[in-house]
Amino acid sequence: RFLDFSTSQSEVLRLFRREPASLDGLREQVSRLVVDEIQDINPVQHALIEQIVGGDGFLTGVGDHRQAIFAWRGGRIEIMAKLYQRLADRSNTDAEVVELTHNFRSTPRIIELANRWAKTIGPVPSMSAPDMEHGRESRTDRHPSHVASLTFQSREDEARWIAETIRSLVDPKTGTGAAHDTPDADRGLTYSDIAVLTRSGTDARTYMTALESAGIPAVFRGGDLFSQPEVLLIVATLSLMAGVKRYQGSLNRPKTLPARIRNVLGCEPEPTAVVQSAVAAVRTAGLPLPRDAEKRLLLAGRLVCRRHAGEPVAPAEARKLHTADLRAYVTRSGKPRRVFPQALLHLALAEAGVAAWDGMSPRAESAMFHLGALSSLIRAMETPGWTDPSDFQYQMIGLCNWGAESSRTEEAPLLVQPETVTISTVHSAKGLEFPVVFLADVCAQRFPSKWARSVPDLPFEGAVAGRIDPSRLADGENFDGERRLMYVALTRAERFLFVSASGKPSQFQRAVDGLTGQVGGVSIHGGNHRLADLTRAASRAKREERLVSSFSDLRYYLECPHDFYLRKVLGFAPTIDQAFGYGRGVHNLLRAIHSDPATWAKLAREDGKLGAALSELVDHGLMYLRYTVGEPQERMERRAQEIVADYVTRYRDELERLEFEPEREFETLIEEEQILISGVIDVVRHDDPPRVSLIDFKSGEADAEAASKLDTEEMRLQVSLYGVAAKKELGYRPDEGIVRYLAERDPASRELIVPLDAQTLAEARATVATAANAIRDRRFNEGPTGRYAGKTVGGRCRDCDFLLFCGHEAAVTQRSGDVTSR
Which of 125, 488, 653, 734 has the largest count of CB atoms under 10 Å? Predict the structure, then answer.
């Protein structure tokens, strides 16, 4: 098992959800545990690790105490120190400490600067702090001007210099950029190679504005998502749909939504005023909107709100809207029982005409990326379950209050970034690397933060308060926490590093200024700095990082690269329907059956007992349909029990005599393109050890459209990838894979046999490698491919999750050919 405690705890929770749920059962599953970013764990996480490993498990911890930057959320560096002591104890022959000192990321000058800065951090008792060593011979310094410390009169001057310097590093007109080494040959930098990092999101909008004015596309990966005019436009439209009258929050706190609205749009914090002002701001940014966009979006908000209140909407009123699906939604009779916020977001995007932005320009790509981040937030908002029309207003209020202050833009799951400059807080950039880093705004009161030493007031009483020492959440006298954060920022850079401040430089800026000169960089006061010795090469996206994916993600690229782009690069989420969770529920029932197959086979031979046992599993929550209640829920539960009971009855002889391993997780590396594929094999069936078969279940019929929308060839590919993983990672030699269609009535179509011979597995690897190569090259402009190619009206576009706002010509043609609402 591999746990990363620098991010979420979903993997830990998933471990505890798996059967058996006891710690003893968990220890049986996890004999070896690897914990990444161990310097950031807190006491609760440490207790979990101790319980999972127990007294006879194996633990590997990976971390760097110089990068411990999460003390404010409970991280304790002394936990790593104590573990280090235990492992370094020479009397413990089962333990070992391995120092990983080589830095393969940065040039020697950047490494030396970071090493010297690290010496300003207070030592951690009992732990070593060896200097980094240069580990990549080809990554050499090319000119002193490429590492610099700078000061400016104003933040606007600083931002303009950053924009000008980026323009010298990347020239989209000629398709060239400053040369940067790769294992093969130099490549020219692209916008996605560049990051502007700040200690906090405060005033980050200044840098975004300067880049936009210079024609440079940028996206925020910090907390400034709700300062983007395109996001405010759509949020205001959704707010009108929800009946929100005015946004809440103090104007004296810069991160509240009213304060962001005032600073970005200069209008009242009311949805109607925001729509009107945001339309103008979006047009000023060069993004096209329909001539009557303001009127249409205001009307859409009012009519959807009326529909949710149960008030009838006349067709004549709805005809002013341009989106057919939106017209159909607002004119539907009766008050809806539930609301699907993601569906309303898609309707708002369609009515705003954002399809015209898709693929239009770099600035448009950044706008679509921001809207994709909003889509991800909406998905999280509706994930807990059913949204009553009366609850939608409070969900939107919560989204606006939380999102304005705390939302973060996630990294693209496959590390394929939009072709834009990244603007981010240092915390959000942890774990990332960029050929070019501008560490900006290192000013007094900013970095180190004036709040770093403040002891927070915690909203706890009683026993809980006694277990938490608020002083541990504050930085120390030497600002060691802030110094570690500076170390993280410096070590994000590969070749170009610029540390800058405006007005009054902070103590950190002054210290870095001196160290920069010591390592051979340059110090510039006044900001008149030009980079020298910039050899140019054809711009090409970074290809050195390992891609991480699954078949579920790759299939979207194989079917339609532009769907993949919208879904996995920009982050748009599909809409959810009431059947959400049905397939997972069926697989939960199957997992229970294959965990004790002989018992279930016996039940199948006794009248009535099989159905009663399945009903008990459903009653215990294995069939959780969060968006369905009443008769539809009961119907889906009955159907699931019927098809699973039919499966147990049909295959009871097999269940009685063979062994099964349900839901075997795997990760396998396709070396040809360095893509790591993860997934879950439904069942490993032990036929005659060491002979095994892999079984994958589909809860629908064999007809691809009625099942999982995978055709026969895609299912062969999926099972073949399982075969690759089973042979390479799990140590099995499966002879065949089997796809079983649980709801199929035709006996001849109930199974698809996939031979897992060497040729089939080689073809699967080649298909994945080809797709990964195309993803690295950012070939996302293609529409439907394979069996979908050339089929626009009535083809894949018709059933696409993003048809309403996709800008690809195939989707545009589909929308123009649609006569009825989907």
Answer: 734
Query: Hey, what are 706's tokens?
Result: 């009625």
Do 256 and 250 touch, CB atoms closer than 8 A? yes
Q: Which amino acid belongs to residue 543?
A: R
Residue 345 in contact with residue 378, Cβ under 8 Å? yes
**By the 8 A CB rule, do 149 and 516 touch?**
yes
Q: How far apart are CA 104 and CA 556, in angstroms?
A: 33
pLDDT > 70? residue 790 = no
Closest CA to 225 of 440, 426, 403: 403
Rg over CA atoms, the chain? 28
Neighbours of 696 (CB within 10 A): 20
Taking only the tens place, the pLDDT of each residue in 206-259 is 898 899 889 898 888 766 789 899 999 999 999 999 999 999 998 988 889 999
782, amino acid identity: E
Question: Quick count: other Cβ atoms within 10 Å of Cβ 632?
Answer: 13
Q: What is the mean pLDDT of residues 721-738?
A: 89
Give the end-to-end CA distance of the chain in Å, rounded to a whole number: 43
Give the side-chain half-sphere CA count within 13 A for 366: 27
Tokens found for residue 149 = 């410390």
Task: Read off φ and ψ for residue 629, nearest 5 degrees.
Answer: -140, 170
| The predicted structure's pLDDT at residue 281 | 95
pLDDT digits (tens, 9 = 90+) for 131-164: 999 999 989 999 999 999 999 999 999 999 999 9
- How far is Cα 123 from Cα 711, in angstroms, rounded to an integer? 59
The predicted-structure confidence for 563-598, as pLDDT tens digits, reads as follows: 999 999 899 999 988 788 888 899 999 999 999 999
Nearest alpha carbon to residue 516 among 113, 80, 26, 73: 113
Q: Mean pLDDT lowest for which of 78-82, 232-236, 256-260, 766-770? A: 78-82
Task: Read off φ and ψ for residue 648, nearest 5 degrees.
Answer: -65, -40
How far is Cα 349 from Cα 356, in angstroms, rounded to an integer? 11
Question: How many CB atoms neighbour CB 815 within 10 A?
Answer: 20
**What distance in Å separates the CA atoms of residue 321 and residue 299, rounded to the nearest whole number?**
8
Strand residue runs (E) in 135-203: 147-152, 170-171, 176-180, 187-188, 194-198
Sheet holding 32-36, edge to edge: 2-4, 32-36, 58-62
Say how far apart CA 553 and CA 618 lie, in whole Å.
29
Query: Contact at 8 Å (CB) between 63 and 80?
Result: yes
Residue type, 516: T
CA dihedral sign, ordered 407, 155, 269, 214:
negative
pLDDT given for residue 515 in this prediction: 96
The pLDDT assigned to 576 comes to 85
Give the C-alpha separation, 447 to 424, whole Å: 15
Give 458's DSSP letter: P
Q: Judge whether 698 and 708 are in contact, CB under 8 Å.
A: yes
Q: Is 100 helix (H, G, I), strand (E, B) or coil?
A: coil
What percent of the chain has a predicted confidence (pLDDT) above 70?
91
CB 149 within 8 A of CB 521: yes
The per-residue pLDDT for 414 is 54
CA-to-CA distance for 395 and 388, rounded, in angstroms? 10
CA–CA dist 164, 187 (Å, integer): 21
Percent of the chain with pLDDT over 90: 51
pLDDT surpasses 60 at 643: yes
Q: In this structure, are residues 10 and 43 in contact, taking their beta carbons and an 8 Å threshold?
A: no
CB 69 within 8 Å of CB 481: yes
Six-digit token string for 1: 């098992």
Q: Take residue 621 and report the two structure tokens written for it.
A: 């929550």
d(CA 220, CA 228): 9
Cα-based torsion angle of the residue sequence 715, 721, 723, 728 in order, rounded to the nearest 10 degrees: 180
Question: Whose structure tokens read 């829920």?
Answer: 633
Distance (Å, rounded) from C-alpha 515 to C-alpha 483?
A: 14
